[in-house]
Write a structure and sequence with these properties.
alpha/beta; Purple Acid Phosphatase, chain A, domain 2; five-stranded mixed sheet; 3 helices
């Protein structure tokens, strides 16, 4: 199963469209918040099932604040991250993931990519596909390969590279 993970589009979709084209066929798109009212558009262009959660800029949204689901024997916890103070580090969100018995925790909000694996849990942030804040300011997203037996591989991508 091929999963694309994005965050913080903030209503700007040119890089998302480009990333979808670059990545090719995907089985699931996960958006980690700050869609700013564009969830219907994102669902329409994805070409696959979509999971979207609300971010701190998704005012008046009916999107869930968090979600938990399982795929191929792995449990996922997704959230935008601002309720877990991710701008100050990943410890709090990692502990929440452990409390929920998640194998993978995904968050956005910081606009900076992150991939950490420790203590049997993966914590990741794909960065922002529209407004990156890390050194070099490259728009980023992640893909995940998930095998039926639960093996996982993660890849960080820069749009257009």
């Amino acid at each position: 199963m091929k999963i694309m993970i994005v965050s913080d589009t903030h209503g700007k979709h040119a890089n998302l469209e480009k990333a979808l084209q670059e990545t090719g066929k995907i089985d699931l798109l996960i958006h980690l918040g700050d869609v700013e009212g564009a969830e219907d558009y994102i669902e329409a262009i994805a070409g696959c099932p979509v999971r979207i959660i609300a971010g701190n800029n998704d005012f008046f949204s009916d999107l869930k604040r968090e979600d938990e689901f399982s795929l191929c024997g792995r449990k996922f916890f997704i959230t935008h991250g601002h309720y877990y103070y991710v701008s100050m580090g990943t410890e709090r969100i990692r502990m929440e993931g452990l409390d929920r018995r998640a194998d993978v925790v995904m968050f956005g909000h910081t606009h900076r990519p992150c991939l950490e694996e420790s203590g049997g849990i993966v914590v990741l942030n794909p960065g922002s596909i529209s407004y990156p804040r890390q050194e070099g300011r490259e728009a980023t997203y992640m893909t995940m390969e998930l095998a039926e037996d639960g093996r996982m591989a993660f890849h960080l991508h820069s749009v257009g590279r």
